[in-house]
Amino acid sequence: MTAQSQTIETKVAILEEKISSSDQLLMKIDSAIDKLIEANSNVTRMLAVHDEKLDKQDRIDAVLFEKIDSLHRDMTRQTDTIKKGCERDIMKVNTRLTDLEKKMWTMAGGLAIVSLIFSAVGNKIITNALAPAPVSIERTIK
Q1: Does residue 140 form part of some domain?
Q2: pLDDT in tens, 44-55
């Protein structure tokens, strides 16, 4: 064999070695790509599940907020009813107190008049008021 054929064979052997190394490298790259595809698929499924959970939670939140708003409206309506009832009761009590005050003052005035009539001072005043005025007869002396 000639030197030229040996260099060619050496070059071919080196190329075969490089191709073999490249094949192993390509197999590792293919394996890594497959693993990345699988991981991407798992992440996609996880994101879909989380998105579905978030949508479900949004619907639940909307229902809860609607219930809270409904309860707030009901409570406002009930408190308004209670407030009107209390105001009505206060007005009734106020009216009754006013009537009682009028009766009390009327009775106090009547009692004052009766006690004045039956007292000694009142008796003199009434006697003087009802009795005719004394007529004085004067004589004139000339």
Answers
A1: no
A2: 999 999 999 999
CB atoms near residue 18 (< 10 Å) = 10
135 torsion bin: left (phi>0), alpha (psi -120 to 50), beta (else): beta
Under 8 Å between Cβ of 97 and 105: no
Tens of pLDDT, residues 56-104: 999 999 999 999 999 999 999 999 999 999 999 999 999 999 999 999 9
Residue 136 lies in a domain: no
CA angle 6, 17, 28 (to 5 degrees): 170
Please list, in sequence order, all residues whose beta carbon lies within 8 angstroms of the beta carbon of residue 122, skipping any fewer than 6 positions away.
Answer: 115, 116
Q: How many domains does the chain have?
A: 1
Question: Is 137 part of a structural domain of the chain?
Answer: no
d(CA 53, CA 60): 10
Q: Which domain holds residue 69?
A: 3-128
The answer to whether residue 134 is domain-embedded is no
- The closest of 136, 116, 111 to 127, measured between CA atoms, is 116
- In this prediction the pTM is 0.47
User: In the 8-state DSSP scheme, what is residue 96?
Assistant: H
